[in-house]
Design goal:
The protein has 468 residues and is an alpha+beta fold. Helices cover 33% and strands 23% of the residues. It folds into two domains: 2-299, 4-Layer Sandwich (Phosphatase 2c, domain 1), CATH 3.60.40.10; 334-467, no CATH class. Residues 419-431 have a biased composition (Pro residues).
Length: 468
């Protein structure tokens, strides 16, 4: 088992007017958070993330537990940012990096999102242990530019992933073993963006941690100091109970910004609080240049059109595929129905979707629907499904015979002299039409699909001329 000796330093730098960096160091954790969004409260975002980490700082027993805990810290910080933005939309646009590691005495559990960096100095060799989530790093990964070109690229400040209150964020996690003599450094890009890895390696050789941190910050200031500078250092040493008992140390915005309680900002906007717990951002503040305001433009939460467009395309594809399936199926279906009072044959499916018809009329007969008995009128109005165009024509021919007989019965009823009612005649049959209930069931002819008629006339109804 080992212990951790630690130090933390954070300052505004030579250009900025306020510190949007924060840091935290303890026997169990080293962390840097770099706020962004310019006037949209980057200092509040970094303070939220570092403070949440400090509140959740407890020694874990194994590597898996460390990763679970640090992932929980990030999730809770992100939720807090989301709540604050919901309460005050002027904060929409703030975000923060999160770069650090938990320590359990034998291992480090690393968590990283954004472009703050982690370095390991082991046996005199410096290694960057994090991978920047930045635009220029993606260009390096694709082989489009070199690291030297990235250092002077005009868009080197653009970040692709941060904590900004949105539900989808993808940090990097890693476990690695601690070795006696290891020195870890986590820093904001106000340091790594201004001095080279060679300078970092040289200055990290300084024995005293506080002095090493001060020398690193001085080197960044000497090279312009145009951004906030935060450095958190930790040395792996022999186990020491006094070191393990030291309290954690917060630096930067986490010591300067009052984090509103949930509900405070909403109350201030329309409630009883006389003063805002967090000052309204000045959108014209001169210390926030265009580069800072656009620092993570690729993830601007106000521009969610790519996600919305993707959802629209996905819905359109589903509807298109579904619509094509319905169309293809409908082209193989036929039914007999009514068109302007006449019996007609249709190709497709009855009805429509969203005002679009799923069928087209193939041919219309001269059979007037009102010439049919009431039972068959209802069947035609409800549509009679059949399996093919030939079956549909057979059904129409059968209906023609039924209509002709029905007209004859009606004419007989109009004669002045009474006539004997005709004897019941077996109901004609055809594709899609019901069988005569008194007839012996017969097997349907080949290639004729059964109908979906749900009611059948009684023998008395079929025989009654009044049914016509």
């Amino acid at each position: 088992m080992f212990s951790l000796r630690f130090a933390a330093h954070s300052e505004v730098g030579r250009v900025r007017k306020n510190n949007q960096d924060a840091g935290y160091a303890s026997p169990n954790m080293l962390l840097v958070t770099d706020g962004m969004g310019g006037a949209a409260a980057g200092d509040l975002a970094s303070a939220v993330a570092s403070t949440e980490a400090s509140r959740s700082d407890r020694r874990a027993t194994d590597g898996e537990e460390m990763l679970e805990r640090i992932a929980g810290m990030m999730a809770r910080a992100n939720t807090k940012l989301s709540d604050l933005i919901d309460e005050d939309l002027q904060l929409d646009g703030m975000g923060t990096t999160f770069c650090g590691a938990m320590f359990n005495g034998t291992e480090f559990g690393l968590a990283h999102i954004g472009d703050s960096r982690g370095y390991l100095l082991r046996d005199g060799e410096l290694t960057q242990i994090t991978h920047d989530h930045s635009w220029v790093q993606s260009l390096i990964d694709e082989g489009k530019i070199t690291p030297a070109q990235a250092a002077v690229h005009p868009h080197r400040s653009l970040i692709l992933k941060v904590l900004n209150g949105q539900s989808m964020f993808e940090p990097d996690y890693e476990l690695f073993a601690a070795e006696l003599g290891d020195r870890l450094m986590f820093c904001s890009d106000g340091l790594s963006g201004l001095i080279s890895d060679e300078q970092i390696a040289e200055l990290l050789q300084t024995d005293d941690l506080d002095e090493a941190a001060a020398q690193l910050a001085k080197a960044a200031n000497d090279n312009g100091g145009h951004d906030n500078i935060t450095v958190v250092l930790g040395d792996v040493v022999e186990q020491d109970g006094d070191l393990d008992a030291l309290p954690g140390l917060l630096v930067g915005s986490a010591t300067e910004v009052e984090i509103p309680r949930t509900g405070q900002l909403a109350k201030e906007r329309g409630g009883s609080d006389r003063e805002a717990p967090y000052p309204k951002p000045d959108l014209n503040a001169p210390e926030h240049d265009a580069g800072e305001v656009a620092r993570y433009a690729p993830q601007d939460p106000k521009r969610r059109w790519p996600g919305i467009l993707a959802a629209i395309v996905a819905i359109a594809l589903v509807l298109g595929i579904g619509g094509w399936g319905v169309y293809a199926y409908g082209k193989s279906r036929y039914f007999v129905g009514a068109d302007e009072g006449y019996v007609a044959v249709y190709n497709g499916l009855p009805g429509g979707i969203l005002g679009l018809h799923l069928n087209e009329m193939v041919e219309r007969s001269s059979i007037n629907v009102t010439d049919l008995p009431s039972f068959f009128q209802r069947q035609v109005d409800a549509t009679i499904p059949v399996g093919s165009i030939d079956a549909a024509r057979g059904t129409v021919a059968t209906l023609a015979g039924i209509a002709e007989r029905c007209v004859e019965v009606r004419n007989e009823n109009k004669r002045p002299s009474p006539v004997e009612s005709p004897s019941p005649v077996p109901t004609p049959t055809g594709p899609g039409l019901p069988l005569d209930p008194s007839a012996t069931p017969m097997s349907p002819p080949p290639n004729v699909f059964p109908s979906t008629i749900t009611e059948s006339p009684t023998a008395t109804e079929e025989a009654d001329p009044e049914a016509c």
